[in-house]
Design goal:
Helix 4 (136-148) links the parallel strand 5 and strand 6. Helix 1 (57-67) runs antiparallel to helix 2 (73-87), helix 5 runs parallel beside helix 6 and helix 6 (200-228) packs parallel to helix 7 (249-269). The protein has two domains: 12-87, no CATH class; 104-339, NAD(P)-binding Rossmann-like Domain (Rossmann fold). The protein is 41% helix and 14% strand. The strands form two sheets. Strands 6-5-4-7-8-9-10 form a seven-stranded parallel sheet, sandwiched between helices. Strands 1-3-2 form a three-stranded mixed sheet, with no helix packed on it. The protein has 347 residues and is α/β, with parallel strands linked by helices.
């Protein structure tokens, strides 16, 4: 790669050279660092003598925003964060551009926990996000939280266990932003219960909430994805698809069924530019975990069997999910990525 080139950038005309003088954290003989994104290429060169543009880190964000005003503010916040890394002497050479800025994303179960973290992660990458959940109040708070951070977000109330509400959700998404190019199918976990203690009604509700919501959401999203020859479907499942838990019979059964459905569907649509994957969270610090393990002593015992010796965070699950939703994951399909701190014992 020649000096000043930026691999993967579709626009070489927006190159900007910045030099940070008189900075103890910048070495005169340090390497250049290059950042690329769908919208711009930014070359930062260490040099002790001069600043080639009159831009502080704050000023840089303002300058770029004035000339590229159509981009989400999160795009510039990400840029500033990368610049901060360089100022601090970080060894980031080419941060990955996920290439989803401007994409329309639909995230269900998004008012809290993992769903909200995924929506925030997508918005931070410049995606335009519709969040869906059953309760209007928490959903409005989640949307406001993303907007406050500079992201583009809208809310649409829906119960994904009901067929007619999924159809209405897609109608509302189209009105707000257009057909979703990224679908993250997330739903609250089914109630716990031992295999010989569940009623017919328990099984019926678990089937609709956990399995059929994923099937119906994917089925509704596919026509538009196929028409544009691009799409990302990510189902949020659980580590129970690899290591069942006795007390989570419904999750064991129906999330495993989602995994089988996703693998089968991925084979059908892979040649059309559409990927279908699953993320299986391990023990993650969410309200669901609080429901399942109310006793602090039980939580401590649980942490002891996790090699990482801690619970995961929603943001850690979201990071994997957002990657699977990206252009960079175009050759990754039909897979289930377990994000569990090593808790699953299987290979």
């Amino acid at each position: 790669m020649g000096d000043g080139e930026c691999v993967g950038s579709p626009r070489k005309d927006t190159k900007l050279e910045l030099v940070f003088p008189n900075d103890a954290n910048v070495k005169a003989d340090g390497p250049s660092r290059k950042f690329c994104s769908t919208h711009h290429a930014l070359l930062i060169t260490h040099h002790p003598l001069f600043l080639s543009t009159a831009a502080t880190l704050d000023g840089l964000s303002r300058e770029f925003r004035s000339t590229h005003h159509s981009l989400p503010i999160t795009h510039y916040q990400n840029l500033r964060r990368k610049l901060d890394w360089v100022k601090q002497g970080a060894s980031y050479n080419t941060p990955m551009d996920l290439q989803i800025a401007g994409k329309v994303a639909l995230v269900t179960g998004a008012s809290q926990g993992i769903g909200l973290a995924v929506a925030e992660g997508l918005a931070a990458e410049g995606a335009r996000v519709v969040l869906s959940a059953r309760r209007e109040g928490p959903l409005e708070q989640a949307v406001a939280r993303i907007r406050h951070s500079g992201g583009e977000a809208f809310g649409a109330v829906a119960d994904v266990s009901r067929t007619e509400q999924i159809a209405a959700l897609f109608d509302e998404t189209r009105k707000l932003l257009g057909d979703p190019e990224i679908l993250v199918a997330n739903a609250g976990g089914p109630p716990p219960g031992l295999a010989d203690q569940l009623s017919e009604d328990d099984w019926a509700k678990g089937y609709e909430l956990t399995l059929m919501s994923a099937v119906r959401l994917a089925t509704a999203a596919l026509p538009a994805m196929r028409a544009r020859k691009w799409g990302r479907i990510v189902n949020i499942t659980s580590l129970t698809v690899r290591q069942p838990l006795d007390s989570l019979t419904l999750s064991n059964a129906f999330r495993s069924a989602v995994t089988g459905f996703a693998k089968t569907l991925s084979n059908r649509v892979a040649a059309e530019g559409i990927t279908v994957n699953n993320v299986g969270p391990g023990y993650t610090a969410t309200e669901r975990l609080e429901e399942l393990f109310e006793d602090e002593a039980a939580k401590e015992r649980l942490i002891e069997i996790i090699p990482a010796k801690r619970f995961g965070t929603p943001e850690e699950i979201a990071a994997v999910t957002v990657f699977l939703a990206s252009q960079q994951a175009a050759y990754l399909t039909g897979q289930t990525l377990i994000v569990d701190g090593g808790a699953v014992a299987a290979l």
